[in-house]
Queue: 4 jobs
Job 1
Amino acid sequence: MTTHLDTSTSASAPAANGDDGAGLLPSPALPKSPASRLRWAAADSWTLTLRTFRHWARQPAALILALLFPVLLVLMFGYLFGGQMQVPGGGNYREFLLPGMFAMSMVFGIETTFAAVSTDAARGVTDRFRSMPIAASAVVVGRSVADMAHSVVALAVMVVCGRLVGWSWHDGLVRAAAAFALLLLLRFALLWVGIYLGLVARGPESLVAIQVLVWPIGFLSNAYASPASMPDWLGAVAEWNPLSATVAAARELFGNPGWGGESFAARHAVELAIAWPVLITAVFLPLAVRRFNRLDR
């Protein structure tokens, strides 16, 4: 759905005085001071964030399905397969599972970001925004703010689901808050992967290819099973999966059963849960910005 924006004025930049001699409204004057440019960019970014919120309000079915799909996976794995799963060191499988599902819901967010960005690019909406007198960063920042807000809601839904099936944190609210922060840090990093791939594909029909990429990465981790239960080579791959670092760190901070181990990845899960997202962001954020700046007008 394409949202009409008035191209005669910016979200926050003041209009220039005078007429252009052709009976058209002049383009707004660009702010000159760094503080004014920052306010201008923030206001334009918020305008485009609200655009996404309005899309979700008008088409709530897709949003609701995206929020409920991870819940379905919790019920399926927790109750349908959970009786056959053994937790290393003992413990309740659903308490083992939920931190993994929290992280998986962050990974699934790549699909939401990719679909939105690629659809706008394919329909020419992104090019239209780039031709408007708005801050160049507003399109990307507005998308990222909206998707991070969506991820906070998705995580809240998953926590409620977890509480209903018997999951809880056991090491205090501060450590639990740190675990949630690491989960959102992973989502922030993967957000730039979704933006970059969406700008490269420039078409929502490539979503299947993204799903083929996301699902193996998600399942080839410690989210559902311990790497110790896998063949040695496969367990090593799963252990060093960036998703596994966030899941292991969340289990440790929540005080939930974990897969343990004496490897470097097992002993430094929290550090890796910070390092991997920082590395992913450092790679894909510049790629996304450069790709956006090089789009054909």
Job 2
Amino acid sequence: MKHDLIVIVGPTAVGKTKLSIELAKAFNGEIINGDAFQVYRGMDIGTAKITPEEMEGIPHHLLDIVDPGDTYTVSDFQRDARRQIQAIHQRGKLPILVGGTGLYINAVLYKNYTFQDEPHNPAFRKELERFAAEHGSKALYQRLLETDRHAAKSIHPNNVKRVIRAIEKARNPSLEPEAEKVKEPLYRHLVIGLSMNRDELYARINHRVELMMAQGLMKEVESLAEQQLQNSQAAQAIGYKELFPVFSGHYDQAEAVRLIKRNSRRFAKRQMTWFKHQMQVHWFSMDQVEQTFTKKVTKIMEFVAGKMN
């Protein structure tokens, strides 16, 4: 049976979180995180993770489910999000998937969005696993450096699983996630997209970065550095990767903040391009000059009610 599902997408800082709360209250919903980095514990400020107070009693799912040193893939998210959607429906509630990671959201929505998780050569994987057990993770990592130095830069030497996967990909580049060309929806879903004029959005992004720094983002990144997680998957998030070099003296905090703002703006632009070309979205402008937030929410609610009935 196909289930009803609301999806809220859009660039960073556009207002997705606030809208999701209002829709959840209006339609008896529960919210599923659709952001690739909010799944990590201890990464709250830099990912703009919703606070318990901001939740207003609305249940949220797939937040703080893995440690920052762990690997969490899009196929992991696909599995977990679909389980949450089913569980929410069993409770008689409406699932609302919210986030800016388009690949993750598409992976949930379409039944034929599959991934090649199994190795093409199981014997070769076993060989690599034995090598790591006998010679250690550093020796295995050296093999990756010799095979694909570029891939090795983004992987911590102690993450044996990811190192093995990277060696496999270097040996067989076809080992990549795939989606069927013809997309068949798994759910009866409605995608709401939030947009904003560039100047206003960029100003909001710059202000958010300043607020994050005031809230203690530096201490959050320092905690990851103390755990030697600079090369982990989680540490590649914008707002974190720019601050690690401050601790090594590569540049100062002011330069890091400048880079976070710049990279966040560039990311927002990429998000909009992706959503416009990869998804069927009903767009709503969040420009402040047009209407108040309350009026915008009312308009979106009326649209959703008409489509979901």
Job 3
Amino acid sequence: MNAKLDSTVTTRPVTRQTFDEVLVPTYAPAAMVPVRAAGLDLWDQNGKHYLDFTSGIAVTALGHCNPLVVEALTKQANTLWHLGNGYTNEPVLRLACALTEATFADRAFFCNSGAEANEAALKLARKHAHTKFGAHKSRIVSCFHSFHGRTLFTVSVGGQAKYTEGFEPLPPSIDHIPYNDIEAARSAIGDDVCAVVVEPIQGEGGVVPGDVAFLKELRALCDKTGAVLIFDEVQSGMGRTGELFAYMGCGVTPDVLTAAKALGNGYPIGAMLTTEELAKTLSVGTHGTTYGGNPLAATVALTVLDTINQPAFLARVKEASAKLVATLNQIVADYPQVFTLVRGSGLLLGMVVAEAFKGRSKDIQKAAEAQGLMVLIAGTEVLRLAPALIVSDAQIAEFDGLMRAALDSLTKAA
């Protein structure tokens, strides 16, 4: 018998210190440990209440423990959990129909995360180019400060050196250009490019919206060279901008779209959506995943999609965005020593820190947490906000009060 086995393994006391003792230190989580949540409200081990304006990095778009999602998951959990990929299932077929009917896509591939969705998209683009044009057409163009996942392939395509240092040699034939730089795009995208991948709004890179002219030029260059245009909508999709997907609001249609995060409202699922022509590239056995498209994930995602993809719901996201942006702009005006401007789209917003607080976005985040407000950062220069799409006017007002209290404590200390 294992001497380390504890018969109370499911109920033993654990604290933040336990993380440092038993988990691989790839994260540096907050000191508090959340234990319960509903909507945008969250409580830690000590019973302290927090207003969550992170939604798990734009994941729980319908709020924590949304009753509709809980009901759907519970029902499916008592019906059918998993099948090997030698079989299909009804929930995944319904989800694929719903996503293709709601978007430009004809075909869907399901996996477990945004990284896996992007991995599939990049493999599809390479395979398509090799099949149609030959092996010389293999180069991938991405943008600096982008983020596309943590696999070795996707982290190499992402344009942030801090995430690739120490993992060399990296996959070859990947180049990066400045975001929103049309001339750089024209110089980089030639006949040897198989794919151009871009976030319509850079999330981790600082909550920077893509210029419509830039995105349209990427579309034109891909049409000219035969490259595949991939939109990474892992963070910007599923209603976050007030459109079901951000591409719908900029008049640019990609060849491939990747989604995850809010698609499952916290249940792991990713999706790659594409056209009939490109989908033919991946035949039986060329790509796969054990858990992708399982009945549990597909059921949750279908419930989330059906809830978000309604005119009234998306209209409310835009209304909430306008109220939150006005609130943030007033905070910027009242605390010019801390922030300079607000940018982003819908309910994915960033507050850029001023010179006096340069490099201190984490300090602002910690000050907010002390007041019972959960917010995100995007690097050291931007405070990022991604509340659940169901955020109310009252919660926006509550955010305003908590943020101001945090900023008052921070500026007095300075």
Job 4
Amino acid sequence: CSEFGNRSCPENFRSPGVRGVMYLFITAAFILTVLGNLAIIVSISYFKQLHSPTNFLILSMAVTDFLLGFAIMPYSMVRSVENCWYFGMMFCKIHYSFDLMLCLVSIFHLCSIAVDRFYAICHPLHYTSTMTVSTIKQVLVMCWSVPAAFAFGVVFSEAYASGIEGYEMLVKCSSSCPIMFNKLWGTILFTVGLFAPACIMIGIYVKIFTVSQRHTCEFSQAQRHTKDKKNYLSRNKDRKAAKTLSIVMLGFLICWFPCFFTILIDPFLNFSTPLPLFDTLNWLGYLNSFCNPLIYGFFYPWFRKTFKYILKGKIFNPYFR
């Protein structure tokens, strides 16, 4: 272990004041992440008017962000600030498995929401018969089970590290919870976990906005009777929802693409990416879970309204629903 150390933590190069400020800001970030997503969970769960297929998917994605803030970010905070992993190698694997799983669960949800909006706007006559509660349940099972099987299978089998010279010695001697993907699994993770879903979502949203633009032109040229106005308002509402969710998708890609891209190229650079840089990119990804409630609050009037009800304690009134 002379090359890596003997599992003892290296002397921290940060002063106590810097570590205190980092703890303060990161603690504030994960507390706000937990509270913001908890507000979404309570809003959609409590108010029956919000029980729709799209909102059930948003609810499940909020659960993902809540778990990331509640169960993952505190341990990552200690590792980042102290430059050491104090919780043992077994918990290191469990922690990273859940971390990877929740990230993949988020992008699976974004793909599902894109498909939901595609049917709502491009095939409105078939939407209610296609996106039923039963269908949504099946989609949610897939969104959680597939990433869980992938993440835990890859991490605990250590297939991701196959062929990396010196990795076994690094695991035995390091105190930093090292997880390094080889060229094969780095490419698979980037392609399956980010690139392919992103291409699918971008293609769907381009199609949605093309169809929406055509509908707008058709409605502006035709006389609008009472029924037509209702249809127009309904479709306009769907377009606004699709626009909001496309911003959520864009936020996810901006936050997580640098981290996934680093995982992809790091083995080709002989694992020369500095640990502080990789740590920073990982926290940029975590920031997405903090941003999602802000996006919903800014673009969704129903969330702002229900959030006020929650703050005022009206939801504790049994006659208020």
